[in-house]
Design brief:
14% strand; Rossmann fold; alpha/beta; 6 helices; 6-stranded mixed β-sheet
């Protein structure tokens, strides 16, 4: 049975923006294999893991409370699993690694463009509320391939540590 004392000393902490995250179980598997601490941050509604390397942090209800906790807690070299672009920008500024649920990385080179696109789309949606429904119809669902790419990317990141 693994215990908290089994955590590898040089292993980064993995933070998961856990509300609506489809890869929590996969991240836990990889974190356990590498003996890394994993912190699930949520507003609630997630069952605690029996794994001693996994900690559940329940933050106050409210917009971006989980994001604020992660941004305040993350350190250089840590890993954050999120699809939230503003959160990714904050953690990149602190030297952490941002990874989407589909395995793509947020990087210092691509985060500026992603923020700009996000802001532009918010402006477009505000100008045309019917666009929101049109975008939902064309949105790609999370696939087995996305899950596999996430697992491979997280494994690669931790293997390079």
């Amino acid at each position: 049975m693994m215990t908290v004392s089994d955590i590898e000393p040089n292993c980064p902490t993995i933070y998961i923006d856990a509300d609506a995250c489809p890869v929590k179980a996969e991240a836990e598997q990889v974190a356990t294999r590498h003996k890394c601490p994993l912190i699930l941050v949520t507003n609630g509604g997630i069952r605690p893991s029996q794994n001693p390397l996994v900690r559940l942090v329940i933050v106050a209800m409210g917009a971006d409370e989980a994001d604020k906790y992660i941004a305040d807690s993350v350190k250089q070299g840590d890993i954050v699993v999120t699809n939230d672009i503003p959160l990714a920008s904050k953690i990149i500024d602190k030297g952490a690694i941002g990874i989407r649920h589909n395995g793509s990385l947020f990087t210092p080179e691509n985060i500026g463009l992603q923020l700009a696109n996000r802001d532009m789309m918010a402006d477009i949606r505000a100008a045309n509320p019917f666009l929101m429904e049109q975008n939902k119809a064309g949105k790609k669902s999370f696939s087995k391939s996305d899950r596999s790419q996430f697992l491979n990317r997280l494994e690669m990141i931790l293997s390079q540590q």
